[in-house]
């Protein structure tokens, strides 16, 4: 499965991962299946973030 996200910086996607994990925790008691889906999506996005090269800092130039 491939996902292309445009218009968001890596920090924005990291915020989405954190929001998905928070949402999963919140719905776990009443909807464990939904929580599992949210955690899986957060894992996929987090793994994709881990494959990105480190950010270039202008001070490094």
Strand content: under 5%
Low-confidence stretches: none
Q: What Rg, in angstroms, do the CA atoms define?
A: 14 Å
DSSP summary, beta strand count? 0
Structural class: mainly alpha
User: Order of SSEs, N→C?
Assistant: HH
Profile the largest sheet: none
Mean pLDDT: 88
Shape: elongated
Q: What is the multimeric organization of the chains shown?
A: single chain
- Report helical residue fraction: 55-70%
- Report how far the terminal alpha carbons are from each other: 36 Å
What is the overall number of helices? 2
Labels describing this entry:
about 60 residues, mainly alpha, about 0% strand, elongated
Give a written overview of the molecule.
The mean pLDDT is 88. The chain contains two helices and no strands. Helix 1 packs antiparallel against helix 2. The radius of gyration is 14 Å and the shape is elongated. With 61 residues, it is mainly alpha-helical.
SSE blueprint and pairings:
Elements: H1 10-27, H2 32-50
Short overview:
The protein has 61 residues and is mainly α. Helix content is 61%, strand content 0%.
